## 1
Amino acid sequence: MKIILIILITAFNLNIYAQKPSAEKVSLLLNLTNLEKSWGKIDKKEYQKLVTKSPIYKLVEVELTAYFNEVFSWKEIKKEATKYYQDNYTEAEMNKLIAIYELPVMKKHQSSQFGELRKKLRNFIQGRVRVDDPKFKKIKKLLKERYKKNKVKLKK
C-alpha cells in the first residue's frame, strides 16, 4: 500500500513540474519582451524593401499591403510564438523567464534580438510568403494588367 501511495505522489509531482505554460503566461512574457510592438514594424519594412527593389509594385499597392497585413498578422505570429513556448518550456521555466524579464536590467536589454524565437518566426513568415500562393498570383496578375493599361514608367 505504501508503495502505491509513493508512486501516486511521485507521478503527481512529476506531472506538476512538466506542465506546459498557459497561453496567459506566454502572453505575459510576449508583452514583457515587447515583441508585438517591434513586430508591427516588420511588415512595413518588408513592403518598403519590395517597392524599393521593384517600384512596379506601386501599381498594386493596396492589394500588396493587404496581403502583407495578412501574412504578417500579429494574431498568427502570436499563435506560433505561444506554440513555441508551450512546446519548449514548462510552466515553472516560464515563471522564471517572466521573473527575469521583469528585472530592470532585462527591461534595459530588451532592445536586442530575441535569438531563436525571432529566427523561428522569420522562418514561419517566409513559409507563408510563397510565389505560388494563389493570393500572391492574383496580385501579380493584377499588376500585369495595370502595367499594360497604364504603361507608365515608374520612378525608382
## 2
Amino acid sequence: MKEIEIEEIEKGLAYDLFEQTGFDSNWIKEKEGIKGILKDLSKLYQQNETKDFTIICEEKEIKVHKLILQIRSELFKGMFLSVNDTSNQVHDYTGKSFQTIQELIYFLYHDKIDETKLTKENIEEFVDLKDFYELNQNSILGSYLVDFYSKNIFNSSKTKKEEEQK
C-alpha cells in the first residue's frame, strides 16, 4: 500500500475533518499530530457499534459512520443535512462491485488503497463513484488512480504493443 506523505496531508481526511469543523488546521501538518488522528480514524473504522449508516452492495451490508461520509462527500453531506430522520439509513449501491465499494469505504477512513486490489474494471468504478458522490476534491484518491493506471494499465498496453512489433 502506498503510504501517505506529510506533503499530502492537505489532501486527506484529517484535513477535511478540520476544515469542515472549523478548527485551526495549521497544526495538522506536524507529523505526530497527523499520525495520531489517522490512528484514531483507523480505530473508528473498526468500531462497528458506533456506525450509524448502512451501505448495501451485492446483497451484503457495510456499516459506516455518517460523519466520515459527510466529511468526504458533498453528495452525502447534502443528503444527511436534508434528512430529518435520525434512525439508521441505508444506501444501495446496485450495479457496483462489493470489493470496489469496500475499498472505497476503506479509503475514506484511511486515505490509502491496497493497490493489489485495483483492477482496470474497479478503477473505472472508483472514478465513477468519486465523481458521482462528489468526493472531496482535495482527496488523494485521484492521485492513487492516476498512479495505478499509468504504472499498470498504460505500461501493460505499451509492453503489449512492443511485443506485437517484434
## 3
Amino acid sequence: LFSRVGIPEEILTDQGTNFTSRLMKLLHRQLGITAIKTSPYHPQTDGLVERFNKTLKGMLRKFVSDTGRDWDKWLPFLLFAYREVPQASTGFSPFELLYGWQVQGPLDLLRRNWEDPCSGNKAEKGIVQYILEMRDRLENYRKLAAENLQKAQKYQKTWYDQQARKRELQPGQKVLLLLPTST
C-alpha cells in the first residue's frame, strides 16, 4: 500500500493484537505514523471499513462457487468494480479521487463502441497542458468530494440522531460496564 499511495500521517485501526503488537508500534515509530485506535466494542468508529467489508462480502457471495474456495480468484475483479463506481457520499468513484480521472473498464469500452462505433482517437495534447488540466481536475474533485462528504455526514448525523435515544441514569442505578480485554 505504501508503495502506491505513500506513507500516511496517521492510521486508524481497531484494537486487534495484530495492530497493537510491538512490531506495529516499531513500524509506526520508524515511519512517523500516528496510530489511532477505535474505542473498544464500538465498531461504529470504524464504520467506513465495516461498511466496505459488508459490501465486499455481498459481492463475493454472488460470484464464488458453492464451496466458497475460489473467492481469491474473484477478488481483483470485484475490487476493480467497487473502485470504479461513484460513491453516494462523495459523488466520485474511489479511482477518480485517487487518480483524477475515470477508470476505463471493459464495460466502458463496450458501451462506448456501442454508442459511437465510428469514434476515433482524439488529438493528443501537450504534456504540460495535460498536467495543468489534471491538476485543475483533481482540485475540483477534491472540493466537490469534500462538499458531498459534508452533506453525507450531515445526513448520517440526522439519521443517527433520529435513531438514538437518550438514556437518563439515576444516582445509585445499576449499570453494566464493559471493560476492554486488552490495551
